[in-house]
């Protein structure tokens, strides 16, 4: 088993596209394929036993990677919390190469950093805890919350979530509706599930929206959670819901691999984005090829749930939504999800000087000036709804990292900065644990040459958004 696992993890050569697991593929790397195996030749019990046995080594390798890259200590900002009170982590957590400072690194050109191998490892693409296997993976607090609420178990027998809880969003998240701002957090502190959605929202939503919410909390089969022998739950599973990853219409940092890239080692890890403010977005999907929330909702059920493979989806029980009613209803509810309140912002999205402190005001000047942040994140919603290629590959040579080929990230959609303190970790794959890491990353990538004070002020401003 160790030899087989090492072969798949370390090989940089084109390999068969593995989606259904290392144990169901007999090491055949002769012919690359875009498809997952449909017929599983090993018994489920044999697959589960082997993957359970391999789990400690797999998780140890991933945790060693995280400890090498980051300071994982629980160090939070005094007096700064998310919407429902969870502490916000502070400080730069990405570790630098020995003997190098952030100032010294920022003074070098991309070519110098690349040639000397000085690009911080925490700025490299973050692999899935088991990248050759991939699949939906949930933090333990999400698993516990759903199991307690409806006795549905999202535990995977082969993997655990990797990032510590204190770097993740609060759970359950607050819910704000664009149509009923007067109500504040309409979740009342509860995790919204099939068991309580009607009680919480009847009389607040119209019948279409209520039905859309019902579908968003209804479990349907998914690649790792289904009734077949090709699953990663011990018991046959009813599947997952949209709100399993987007808990309470926000995000709980559940991870996955994007479905639109082949072969496996080039697939990006995905940090679940928030659905807050989805009404102002115009591009969806990991490569933003989808033009509406309706397109995105249908795509998720038909393809993303099954790693972009409609063949395997048919086997596992794809949920084909009816576009004119079900998709429309789900999209209409999602479009009601609002950003959290930001009492220091004016109607133009910028700070009210009488309410902001000096650091926040200085940070706003950096954001709209020297930092050039507003070129991609303009007020009032702090996104331009466009794709941008940061070309991070200028700074490092392609390399294999725990089964993930770290090379070009390619074009990535601009995420909104509104409510950003509620949505750690950051960047599309969650490689940046704090806002301080985010500032250092862009200071280097964009060659901004920010001072230490400007960096601190920029974080202060973003915490107010």
Number of helices: 14
- Compute the gyration radius: what is it? 22 Å
Q: How much beta, percentage-wise?
A: 5-15%
Mean pLDDT: 93
The total tally of domains equals 3
Main sheet overview: 2 strands, antiparallel
Number of strands: 8
Instruction: Record the strand order, biggest sheet.
Output: 1-2
Q: Globular, elongated, flat, extended or rod-shaped: what is the shape? A: globular
Could you list the spans in which at least 5 consecutive residues all have pLDDT below 50? 1-28
Q: Please give the alpha-carbon distance between the first and last residues.
A: 49 Å
Helix content: 25-40%
Please state the structural category: mainly alpha
Sequence of secondary-structure elements: HHEEHHHHHHEEHHHHEEEEHH
Oligomer: single chain
């Amino acid at each position: 088993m160790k030899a087989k696992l090492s072969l798949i993890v370390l090989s940089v050569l084109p390999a068969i596209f593995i989606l259904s697991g290392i144990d169901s593929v007999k090491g055949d790397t002769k012919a690359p394929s875009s498809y997952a195996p449909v017929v599983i030749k090993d018994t489920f019990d044999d697959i589960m036993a082997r993957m359970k046995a391999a789990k400690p080594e797999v998780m140890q390798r991933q945790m060693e990677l995280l400890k090498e890259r980051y300071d994982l200590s629980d160090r939070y900002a005094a007096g700064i919390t998310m919407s429902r009170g969870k502490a916000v982590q502070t400080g730069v957590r990405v570790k630098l190469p020995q003997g190098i400072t952030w100032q010294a690194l920022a003074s070098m050109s991309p070519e110098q950093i690349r040639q000397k191998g000085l690009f911080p490892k925490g700025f490299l693409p973050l692999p899935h805890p088991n990248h050759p296997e991939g699949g939906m993976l949930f933090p333990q607090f999400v698993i516990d919350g759903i199991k307690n609420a409806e006795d549905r178990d999202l535990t995977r027998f082969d993997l655990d979530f990797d990032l510590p809880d204190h770097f993740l969003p609060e759970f359950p998240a607050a819910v704000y509706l664009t149509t009923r701002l007067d109500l504040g957090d309409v979740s009342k502190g509860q995790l919204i599930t099939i068991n309580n959605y009607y009680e919480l929202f009847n009389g607040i939503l119209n019948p279409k929206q209520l039905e859309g919410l019902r579908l968003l909390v209804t479990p349907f089969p998914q690649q790792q959670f289904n009734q077949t022998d090709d699953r990663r739950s011990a018991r046959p599973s009813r599947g997952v819901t949209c709100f399993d990853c987007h808990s309470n219409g926000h995000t709980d940092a559940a991870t996955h691999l994007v479905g639109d890239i082949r072969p496996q080692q080039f697939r990006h890890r995905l940090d679940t984005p928030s659905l807050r403010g989805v009404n102002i977005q115009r591009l969806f999907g990991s490569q933003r090829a989808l033009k509406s929330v309706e397109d995105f909702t249908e795509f998720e059920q038909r393809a993303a749930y099954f790693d972009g493979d409609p063949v395997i989806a048919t086997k596992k029980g794809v949920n084909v939504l009816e576009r004119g009613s079900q998709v429309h209803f789900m999209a209409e509810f999602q479009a009601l999800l609002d950003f959290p309140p930001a009492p220091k912002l004016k109607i133009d999205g910028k700070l009210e000087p009488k309410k902001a402190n000096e650091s926040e005001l200085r940070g706003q000047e950096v954001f709209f000036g020297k930092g050039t942040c507003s070129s991609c994140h303009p007020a009032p919603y702090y996104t331009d709804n466009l794709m941008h290629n940061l070309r991070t590959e200028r700074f490092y040579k392609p390399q294999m990292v725990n089964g993930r080929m770290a090379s070009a990230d390619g074009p990535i959609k601009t995420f909104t900065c509104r409510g950003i303190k509620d949505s750690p970790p950051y960047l599309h794959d969650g490689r940046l644990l704090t806002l301080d890491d985010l500032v250092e990353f862009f200071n280097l990538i964009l060659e901004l040459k920010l001072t230490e004070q400007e960096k601190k002020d920029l974080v202060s401003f973003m915490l107010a958004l």
